[in-house]
User: Fold these one by one.
Assistant:
Number 1:
Amino acid sequence: MNSYKQIFENNKRWVAEKKASDAEFFERLAEGQNPDFLYIGCSDSRVDSGELMGVEAGEVFVHRNIGNIVSNLDLNVMSVINYAVDHLHVKHIVVCGHYFCGGVKAAMQAKDMGILNPWLRNIRDVYRLHKTELNAISDRDEKYNRLVELNVVEQCLNVIKTAVVQKTYLTKGFPLVHGWIFNVKTGELVDLNINFQEQLKDIQEIYNLDAG
Ligand code: CO
């Protein structure tokens, strides 16, 4: 771990390196952002969206929280989605979960987590929705991994439930919504291949916010 002072030394070196390879880099950044991606991921320090996607500053709009939750009542994530779609015109929205997620692990424990209870309930609700499948898995690690995946799927559905995503997709053909898993143990990124059009059609049976 770097010391506190080390951070600023690292920053000076980074600025110098960036300028050496691309003299206009920071001037371009100051002109504005035009990212194609909105990335919604976990706050976990091991999951670095820029590194794992191999992208530069300016290419991805990012929101992170414990367990990569997209809650309808969370003004933060809802504002991020609205801004990304309406103003930045992102082409893709990604919900990226990760194996060995502490948030998911905590939600699997029968324990009072205090102030974390309402947040973790979002994950416990995912468990309840998929109880039959999850209870059929006897291996604990396998069950944990599967809940990580199902949580990503459900949070993708929560993105699709928003009016801004439905309306924009049906008029412009984007954004597409994707679910990914980052494997902390291997570094591999896995696309869960969520069928966006099918899910949108299914969601709109009940959550249709496209009209009017
Ligand atoms: Co996590």
Number 2:
Amino acid sequence: MGFILAASGSAIGLGNIVFFSANAYRFGGGAFYLPYFIALFLVGIPVMILEFALGHSTRRAFPQSMYLAAGSKGEFLGWWAIFNASFITMYYITILAWVVGMFFGALGNLWKPTVPVPWFEGDLPNPAAFFFGLISSWKTIACVLFVWSVNAWVVRRGARSIEAAVRVFVPLMWVFMLVLLVRGVTLDHGGQGVLFLFTPNVEVMKHPDVWQGAFSQIFFSLSLGFGILTAYASYLPRKSDQVNNAILTSTLNCGFEYIAGVAVFAILFAFAMVPQASTLGMMFFIVPQGISQLPGGSVGVIGFGLMFFLLLFLAGLSSSVSLVEALVSAIVDKFKTSRRKAIIGFSIIGALGSLCFSLPIVIDRGLQGDGTLGFTLLDLFDHWAFSHGLLVVVLLECILVGWVFGIRRLEDHIHATSKFRLGPVYPWLIKVVIPALITALLVFSVRDEFRNGLYGGKLIPEDGAGWLSILPIFAVLFWIGASVVAAAVFTLKGRYEEAGNGK
Ligand code: TRP
């Protein structure tokens, strides 16, 4: 029970509540659910079974379990996955810091007609104005430090303290989400949003980016390719059933995701608001603008606003702690340092990273693109670590476990404890189908990178900010350089002692 709460707490996060709705809108609403479900059954659940079984059979965090499966190559991939995920965690926590700022805004200022943004010429409606005011102020520093401290506090005792936290967070998240759902669908015209989410459209499915979107959404949403699920499963008792765990975790996650999608679309359609393809726009001003129009006077608006941001915060926190745990347990496994030291060290480095993503320096006064330097960096690193990194990790993980370790050995372990038989397709999925699909997606997207310029050629310098144009190349070099060097150092330094580590 504690494990399912923790695994689903890791899976259910900002990705489920707003990224999903934004992606579903961007890729044509109803058109999205077919690629999404295909991705879930073809890739999501099989890879989740693999990650759980790996942790459960080796009883180690991701790098060491990959080491036991495939030697140093495997270990290198294990560390690389965690460092790639650390980039994601850093900016994810910056986004959570903004959520904290918006929560305080929801007590009053967020709903005022217009709060002028000093550097923006012209009018911006609230809550957008409040949001841009917030991210271009230094207040975000305090919020970043706050979120990292809460993270460190939750993981302080590892599985025990995480379990205690998710026992409160996860049920509360479900309650908040169901309240939003009921509120959404009982509004006049709320039902149209639901229709939008379920009307199929075959045309859209011909575009490869819809498929890349669906795959990335499934990986991110299910926490695959982070090395997290393996670390969590390493704490399970010998007898637990990994197929069952994977099916339960992904059903809870995707159920939550669809409920959130219905609630968000119902609220937006009820007030004839256009959803946005930008995930952050959706979270920070489109949905709040819908909330600001809910009936029930200011008490209703403030109540629902506070609830929405608290929901985002709890969901995000139970995801980000899972990566801190994945990294810390990996370090403790290999270097036998104390947990405390590992947590403090990572939190300091992580907080510095998150602060870079919250740099409030305004670089685009017209808000044509993103508003601040931190925001732009966030978008750039998200483009690599999230849209490409997770795919690369899952690709290599399937190849190493499928071919080098031998999928049969993993299957034997799974079948020893599981009621379900995986059947003859499973090895082919892991060895051939999933790697082939991911390779195809990566080829398409790298081809786009060359055709349209890095990062879609979006950062064309305007008036004097010529240095901006080197950011895309800087981002990709830094991302690859830092994660590869760190992974190599951690792989080469020291070696595993085979003695048990008390788990
Ligand atoms: N699954 C989470 C979501 O849907 C994302 C996530 C998983 C995550 N693990 C993480 C984010 C670790 C940051 C750090 O939002």
Number 3:
Amino acid sequence: MNYVDIPPPPPHAELRADVDVDLAGTVHRVRRLAARAFVTLLLPGGLLQVVVEGGVPESVRTGAALRVEGRLRTASLRDPALAWPGLELAAERVEVLASPTATPPFDLGRPELAATPEHRLEHRPIALRHPKVRAVFTIQAALVRAFREHLDGLGFTGIHSPKLGAQGAEGGASLFELPYFGRRAVLAQSPQLYKEMCVAAFGRVYEVGPVFRAEPHATRRHLNEYTSLDVELGPLGDLGALMALEVGLLRAMFAHVRERCARELALLGVAPPTAARAVSLPFAAVKARSGEAGDDLSPGEERAACAWAEAEAGAELVFVTQYPSSKRPFYARDCAADPTVTESFDLLYRGTEITTGGLRIHEPDVLRAKLVARGMDPEAFGFFLQAHDCGLPPHGGFGLGLERLTALICGLDNVRDAALFPRDAHRLSP
Ligand code: AMO
């Protein structure tokens, strides 16, 4: 048996005029003129225009796989979806590697995907082939890459906690239950308990993983399965240090997106993300200013808080601190000076909450008392309490919703469009 290495795709700069190439990719679009055909070919690095003198056979259509040999030459092409608008490939030989048997449910060659949101999600595997849809996930991948790289650089260890467990961490109402060999199991709402326990083993940890929320409401910002970017570290004494860590992390992620995804941002017609300034506002101050009652912020209040911060401080990131204890899970640390509020925050960006974070209870007796006060059974959290009994440093962390962040950066108004295959109350497939 011969093992052949898969070479990396040619670096962007290596594709230049007067270079002979032998490339394979899939057909994005074909335009047939009398004497020639223009084929837009999707390569690992993006779309490249190919010109085939004399035309192409019928089997060359959207979705076909081709191998093309030929010479690159300069061109000046206007399609913003092209990765190489200054080049075209003059094909000398075209080999059809595979040809589709069906026509896509929508025209992928148009600048916009002309389909209703439902139709787009129904045919998601095909919609993902549209350059604007792909751009969203190229940006998402860059966000995750930079998240990992930044934290690796700060000495964090990536962990992989289980998604099946016996109980939830964030409160009972939003748990998916499933049978588990004669018992009841639940799907993880968050890696919360695991990331906290891992602090004693690794000091600084992060996880990129799926979490499940059985919230029945269909809103523009809720999914039933989403990707959580989780961070936890200790010893940590100060909420300010945690907020600074998140600002630094977001700046690094945004810088990476600006650097690596300029074409995708331009194609989507959105401004490159920045997070130059952050402000922090106590929860009570936001309430006082909005005049709304309640122990949580409404979407309108989140938008208003971002608008004030932008207008008055030029800030794009808004930390809302001192959240009411009653609205936070049992593990959240109450303020020493006022136990009705917590040492925690929500981070708002472009009008929407993208993160919850805070300091945690690390004293086992305080944690036991909190569980009991909430009518929860300490027995059910035996492993978590044992980790505290055996010593957990003062610690804290946060969870960042990947799809929400992606949607806000990409200017999408529904978080579902930032999920590869979204799960909501009506959708389990594709
Ligand atoms: P929380 O439940 O606030 O906190 O979630 C953290 C972040 O995850 C995102 N998010 C969601 N995104 C899409 N659909 C949903 N249904 C959804 N729910 C939440 C939001 C939110 O800010 N364990 C804590 C984090 C921590 O304290 O470390 C937690 O999960 O962007």
